[in-house]
Amino acid sequence: MKTVLTIGLVALSLGGCAADTTDGVPAESDDSSGTSGGVQQTLEQVSDARMVKPAEIEPGQVLVAASKVLDTSDTKYFVEPEGGKKKDDAGNTYTDDNYWNMCGPGAEAVVLYYSPWRSNPKYGRINTYYKEPYGPHVSNTFWTSPSNDKTYGYKTMWRPSILYLAEYSKPPTFSTAGVDGFSTYRTTGSKTSDICDSLNWEASDHASKSSYCGSGSYFYAEVSGSTSFHSHVVSDVNASHDGISGWAVWVAVNTYASSTHHLPNWSRSVTHAIAVVGYNDTANTYTYIDTCGPHCNSSSGNSSSTREFTVSQSVLESIMDNHVW
After folding, report:
1. Tell me, what's the pLDDT at 86?
2. Pairing mode of beta strands 128-131, 271-280
3. How far apart, in whole angstroms, are the C-alpha atoms of residue 271 and residue 320?
4. What is the percent of the chain where pLDDT is above 90?
5. The model scores a pTM over 0.70
6. CA distance 50 to 5
7. Element (H or E) spanning 201, and its range?
8. Per-residue pLDDT reduced to its tens digit, 114-171
9. Alpha carbons 31 and 255: distance in angstroms, whole number
């Protein structure tokens, strides 16, 4: 990885939708839909030093707070656009089932919110139209941020960013734009490796690197399973550098492995992406943002218009497929 960033912490003891996540992370869907189940701009250059990866915190290496959650006052309102026949923020009617499968870019938008990308409003936060770059179905919809979302009945933030990432983000490794694939309708979602490439491409302000995920990349790396997951969450949530305090972790999960091992806001099994934004080692929980909105998943625990939830640490680690930290 990168040159180690020394984290200013007191020394104490302390203990990355419906398909295979290697090939894709398609997202959630509306139960009523019948499916199971995710512009380049020239801006001021950001130096590599601004995004040096924090050192992974190993058990017994340093002492950090037993509990920390990033500020979710904005990210709890990150919600994907709804699929089916709906209206956009301009009041125009559209029909688009691709929109049910945007959990990958949804969770990516949450992760990028806690990076320097947040200060680059031209990357996806302009109130404008967004459309699929190719494929059998292309719609042109208008989104704003923030939005009172009169059509859906809840507040949203950064929805244009989700659409930008899903449809326009194009690292040098991509042959087509967008982290979602649009060669089929509905989209099968996004690959974890593409999310990792896009995270590095966007957070680096489109910097040129030898790799866009893992060794040689700018910041983020993909990890299979739950290997070192707790250490990665603690490291990222406690990281502080150049005015950026705390990072989030992108996670691919099976939403419902069993009656005792599932996300609390899901009662059916899909391969899905969330963003972990905090931990509590006293209560043994993780805090996460799920951008699948209250209408995309009719499970009883998913009715809240705000998208912040907690889950047992052991449960999340048992249903995890991979993560990008």
Report:
1. 94
2. unpaired
3. 10
4. 65
5. yes
6. 10
7. helix 192-203
8. 998 888 776 667 789 999 999 999 999 999 998 988 778 899 999 999 999 999 999 9
9. 14
What are 259-293's pLDDT values in tens digits? 999 999 999 999 999 999 999 999 999 999 999 99
d(CA 138, CA 129): 12
Has residue 242 got a pLDDT over 80?
no
Q: Determine the Cα–Cα distance for residues 74 and 273; give it in Å rounded to an integer.
A: 19
Cβ burial 53-92 (10 Å sphere, 16+ → b, else e): bbbebeeebbebeeebbbebeebbbbbbbbbbebbbbeee
Give phi and psi for 48, each to the nearest 5.
-60, -35
DSSP state of 25: B
What would the two tokens of residue 88 be? 């956009």
Beta strand extents in 72-178 (DSSP E only) = 85-87, 93-95, 128-131, 140-143
Q: What residue has token string 């990028």? A: 112
Distance (Å, whole) CA 283 – CA 276: 16
Closest CA relative to residue 166, chosen from 152, 156, 177, 155: 177
